[in-house]
Amino acid sequence: MQALFIVFLLYIWNIVYGQIHYAIYEELNHGAFVGNIAQDLGLDLRELSNRRLRIMSAVKKRYFEVNLENGVLFVNEVIDRELACGQSLTCFMNLEVVVENPLELYRIEVEILDINDNSPSFPNAEIRLEILESSPPRTRFLLQSAQDPDLGVNSVRIYYLSPNEHFALEVQNSGDDSKFVHLMLENYLDREQQAIHHLLLTAVDGGTPVRTGTAQVIVSVLDVNDNSPVFGQTFYKTSLMENVPKGTTVIKLNATDLDESTNAEIMYSLSDLTPSQVRELFSINPQTGEIAVKGTIDFEEARTYEIIVEAKDKGPFALPVHCTIFIDVSDVNDNAPDMILMSVSNSVPEDVHVGTVLALISVNDQDSGDNGLISCMIHPNIPFELKSTFKNSYTVIIKQVLDRETISEYQIGIICQDSGLPALSTNKTIQVQVTDVNDNPPRFADKIHTAYVMENNAFGASICSVSAFDPDLGPNSHLSYSVLHSQIQGLPITSYVSINSEKGVIFSQRPFDYEQLKNFQIHVHVQDAGLPPLSSNHTVNVVILDQNDNAPVIVFPLTKNGSEVTIPRGADRDYLVVKVIAVDADSGQNARLLYELVRATDRNLFAMKTNSGEVRTIRQIKERDVTTQMMIISVKDSGHPPLSTTTTITVSIVDSTEDVVHAVTFMPRTPEYPSSAALYIIISLGAITLTLMLALIALVFTVCRSANVDEEWCWCIEHNDADTMYRNHNLNFQTVPDSSLIKNVIEVRGSGSLAQTYCYTLRTGQELFQSDSKILPPSSATPVRYRSDAANSCFTNWNVKANTTILATEVSDVIMSVLSKDSLTNSWFLLMKY
Known about the structure:
About 30% of the residues are buried. The strands form 18 sheets. This protein has a 5-stranded mixed β-sheet, with no helix packed on it. A 4-stranded mixed β-sheet has the order 9-15-14-11, with no helix packed on it. The chain contains 9 helices and 56 strands. The longest helix has 29 residues, at about 675-705. It folds into 6 domains: about 1-115, Immunoglobulin-like, CATH 2.60.40.60; about 125-330, Cadherins (Immunoglobulin-like, Sandwich); about 340-435, Immunoglobulin-like, CATH 2.60.40; about 445-545, Sandwich (Immunoglobulin-like); about 555-670, Cadherins (Immunoglobulin-like, Sandwich), CATH 2.60.40.60; about 680-820, no CATH class. By secondary structure, it is mainly β. The radius of gyration is 64 Å and the shape is rod-shaped.
């Protein structure tokens, strides 16, 4: 018989939701061919295993499998259509075909076709009837119908009754492909001739080969009964909502009997022809004929019920009559959608592409109509969306770029709801972990950091610490610090500093000297251990703080050339004897100098200004004063602890101006200048002094505009000795507009430590000769006109008239006197008028 069940494959390609439709007969053996999935889906056979092709189904049994070598879909377990789909006219099994890399989803619909594998059968092997002998011909008696689990042509088609002279069969169709079999009396019965009739009832289906089922019909002939109850109609139809309360009335029957007395009293009952499971759900009142619900009605179990009610009177030999009630069950929304997660990824990297499928979802609702229409939704405020693929099938895909540093875990809530009233829903949550990738470079709090280090620091001392933050995890956040290559004063930076690669602590590799290096930059590079590694840079400005490690240095007067100054015997009170100039290589408070006259031959003759270093006379010099005076001067800075230096100056009191000039001429011409640190301080002070000087000149200019002036000159000196002195002492001539010249005045301004201004009266050659200053008159009183290139250049640069007439010797003497009094100012103005 096995050969008769040769597989018949019906391959149909339907463009319905992108499905593939196959049709096979039930009861096929394991391995039976269903279809070639690879060929029908256009998949490469060589990629089936690599892409992990697999079959998923909501059915618990795995009726089908796929051969990954040839792509053939075959039967895995024998399918009993009646067991799988019951009495449904159609039987479909939906399969989900999933392939990965990339993830693709296909739906396959397999229709299970019925074969004639079941024979018709009667509920009871014997059917017993009691018929009054007075029953007229054409009287019908309902018989049990045969049941056949097969459908269509394979179900019961024909009934046969064994040959006899009294009975025939009458088969009626109910309209829903079910048949009602009646035993019809053709001739009167005679109980005296034959009290019992034995008949054979045969049911035949329409399958190939034909299958049959039989039942014995035993007819007992009764006497006396001449009227039977009569129902108003043979068939009744009604409807009932599922899940109605127990005791609910379904229908009330009413049969009538023409007899009287007890022969007219009718008793109702559920016929034995009614299936037992139906009798468990319904009950009938024997007296009233009222049918009520006594069990739980479930639309999903049965959508229609058929009840056969029997009625007979209480008379002797009562003859029962039957009617059939068809009950249609109406669906109510009593089943929530059933959600199945067929494929779930519990973790995704944060750089996963938008559109990647995260989960496959299949939903089903046992209700019908609108109660079975399902819609699913996902929480809107998450970077995922729900996309419908087929009917009642969804995929959860990524719709936005993920960032683990912002959110590392998601709870994806999915709600599926039907369209019933009230609507029922099912919730499920998918937990997704976002795994880290190296997408964040290390970051510093500030791009530039300033560290302050005291000079003369110890070798290996900590300068500062830098710290970067990486929001990634694991190796992606393990940081390593290093110093980028650079040079400081021609040496690699590694000879100055080093860095701890793990903690970012920067150490010095040598002591720092503020006087040589005031600041430098360290470019720190930090890199994580991710693949690929990410990095960033940070700049550390290292500022060297000054320490009081340099004692003041006296630059004037110079002791190596003899610290001797001369003053005239007739010098008045507050006469400037000498200005001590000292510098300190340190800065700030460490370079603020204080001058002190430690010892003097005559303490009542000289006094020293603490801040400027000027030594002036306290009183007028008298004849009795000692000619040679000794002074010990100390210069001390303001550091902690303070450092100091001393110098000894010899002051010679002379009687003639010529001796004073001669002494000044041999003053040192090349003093040692302070280091660059002190020079910066002097320049700063000079800039401030220059600003004040310009303000003073503007004031003088305003005052002198109203003066009655005859002639104005700016002196340009060409005397060799004077010119040499100006260059050696770095003195600069400058001029001011003609209107700002002050009569008979020399103004000398200094910068740096000489941030003071001095004005001296200047007299003509004749006045000098006649005065008490003892300055010798010029050897020739003839005016000399300077026409040399140097003079013209000087006049041109200073915007001065080139025809100015001056006495060279007189100018030289005047300048010498000024220099002697003002102790080598760095810059000065010569303003003269007569």
